[in-house]
Specification:
The chain is α+β, with helices and mostly antiparallel strands. The protein has five domains: 1-133, no CATH class; 138-211, no CATH class; 213-266, Membrane-bound Lytic Murein Transglycosylase D, Chain A (Roll), CATH 3.10.350; 271-345, Resuscitation-promoting factor rpfb (Resuscitation-promoting factor rpfb fold), CATH 2.20.230.10; 367-483, Distorted Sandwich (Glucose Permease (Domain IIA)). It has ten helices and 30 strands. The strands form eight sheets. Strands 18, 21, 23, 24, 25, 27, 29 and 30 form an eight-stranded antiparallel β-sheet that branches. Strands 3, 5, 6, 8 and 9 form a five-stranded antiparallel β-sheet that branches. β1 and β2 form a beta hairpin. α6 (155-170) crosses α7. The longest helix has 23 residues, at 37-59. The N and C termini lie far apart (91 Å). Residues 1-21 and 350-366 have low confidence and may be disordered. It binds zinc ion. Residues 378, 388, 390, 392, 469 line the site of zinc ion.
């Protein structure tokens, strides 16, 4: 604290001194002779007092101590000036938030006289005053599930933040009509007096909210674990698991019992939304194959070229944080009918059967057919230091794919990383799985025929683009579908 050297004014004012003198004269002059010694001494004393007062007042100025919570902080030229300095500091403290900060501190001013030259040195610096002054902002809390997540300058900011967050997931537009959107968590907001540093701008709060809550758990590696399997078990991507374990690479060997960090980001808020979406979809053409004995075995000739049709489809959907949980077709309007392709084929000499395990003892020996025409984007087997349990067949969103073999639908719905998924029990220990669909056309318990359309290609779940992830599972283990497809 700065040491203050100030002369006290004794609360004497010039006017008071003069009026005092008049009073004294009126009382004494008439009674006392000018020449009496008493009068001379009295006059001399009086002149000295006046002279002293003149010297004193001409060399000093009036000022005021600024007293914060009973403590003298420094000196200001006037009460107005002091108030101005305090106001400036409070304004600056709230500026970035578009508000003026306030204080509950007790501000008092104590009148004082000080030598002109000394006043400047006794004025508190902005920094000193800022350190002493307890500023606060009237803000609003955002509480999610009972936990305070942020403080914003206004209630309007809290509302805007929630609306922007919701829209970032529901993405309403011309083809996507959002009917309802609500948060799963309880949300509350109340006024609060907060330190300016605790209050966030709308942008800052939005960044934090969309960044999500980071949680770290530990996973104990199992026998024959791979990065891909660990990712799948934790509903993550391989790269996400590796990002939490920077000392590891895709090629790092994993020992059973090894501790792996699972760093996951979970959203603070869950947006559940319902709406309808309209899309233009392809109707794939059918292929009719006729046997032409004139042709050599194995030869095919296209008699009539097929072409895809198209349709407008309106779905109702339910989404959780932008991920589709369920869809249902509300309306379908065919705009172009598909044209069936007619193919002539030479006589078949041997029926290609599904090898060994699958078809042995089976009445049908039709084997496993391609569920979708398209390029193999990713084969079965080792991939990026992990294991790919199926075949990725490329296709555009909305293209129908079909059952690779007849059977019973045992699962049809959301399958975590698989996205919208269908699992068909094809009998004799064989199952086929179809993942990442944009839409499922079958439901659990339904009997399906080989070649029957069962779903539409999509990119739901852990998928980097539209494709069909197709798995063949024999007695509980995945096998390379390529070696069974006919
Ligand atoms: Zn795949």
């Amino acid at each position: 604290m700065k040491k203050l050297e100030v002369k006290k004014s004794d609360n004497v004012q010039t006017n008071d001194v003069l009026s005092g003198f008049e009073l004294w004269r009126s009382r004494h002059l008439l009674k006392i002779s000018w020449k009496s010694p008493k009068c001379i001494v009295g006059t001399m004393t009086f002149l000295l007092v006046i002279g002293g007062a003149i010297v004193y007042f001409s060399g000093t100025v009036s000022a005021a101590y600024l007293v914060v919570n009973g403590q003298k902080i420094g000196m200001v030229a006037s009460v107005d000036k002091g108030q101005q300095i305090v106001d400036d500091i409070l304004t600056k403290r709230g500026q970035s938030l578009g508000k003026v900060a306030k204080t509950h501190d007790r501000l008092e001013y104590e009148a004082v006289r000080v030598k002109k030259v000394e006043l400047i040195g006794l004025m508190p610096s902005d920094k000193e005053l800022q350190n002493v002054l307890n500023a606060y902002i009237d803000g609003y809390t955002l509480e999610i599930a009972g936990t305070q997540v942020a403080i914003l300058p206004t209630q309007g900011d809290v509302d805007t933040l929630l609306k922007t967050y919701q829209d970032s997931y529901t993405k309403p537009n011309d083809t996507n009509k959002v009917i309802s959107a609500e948060f799963s968590e309880s949300i509350a907001s109340k006024p609060i007096e907060a330190q300016p540093e605790q209050v966030k701008t709308l942008d800052q709060a939005m960044k934090e909210l969309t960044g999500g809550k980071i949680t770290t758990t530990e996973y104990t590696a199992q026998e024959n674990d791979s990065w891909w399997l660990i990712a799948r078990r934790n509903n993550m991507k391989t790269t996400e698991v590796l990002a939490g374990n920077p000392e590891m690479t895709e090629d790092s060997k994993i020992q059973a019992g090894q501790k792996i960090k699972i760093v996951s980001v979970t959203p603070y808020l869950t947006v559940m939304s319902k709406g309808t979406i309209t899309s233009t979809e392809t109707i794939p053409y059918d292929i009719v194959t006729t046997t032409d004995t004139e042709l050599a075995s194995g030869n095919t000739v296209i008699k009539e070229l097929g072409s895809d049709g198209s349709k407008f489809v309106t779905y109702s959907y339910e989404q959780k944080n932008g991920q589709t949980i369920s869809t249902q077709v509300v309306e379908e309007k065919v705009s172009t009918q598909p044209v069936t392709q007619v193919v002539s084929k030479g006589p078949e000499l041997t029926a290609v059967s599904m090898t060994g395990i699958a078809s042995r003892g089976s009445n049908s020996s039709t084997g496993i057919a391609w569920p979708l025409r398209g390029p193999i984007n990713s084969p079965y087997g080792s991939r990026w230091g992990s294991f790919h349990t199926g075949l990725d067949i490329g296709g555009s969103i909305g293209t129908t794919y079909s059952a690779a073999a007849s059977g019973t639908v045992v699962a049809a719905g959301w399958g975590g990383g698989y996205g919208n998924m269908i699992l068909i029990d094809n009998g004799h220990g064989v199952s086929t799985r179809y993942a990442h669909s944009s839409k499922l056309l079958v439901s659990v318990g339904q009997q399906v025929k080989q070649g029957q359309s069962i779903g539409l290609v999509g990119s739901t779940g852990n998928s980097t683009g539209p494709h069909l992830h197709f798995e063949v599972i024999i007695n509980g283990s995945t096998v390379d579908p390529a070696s069974y497809l006919r």
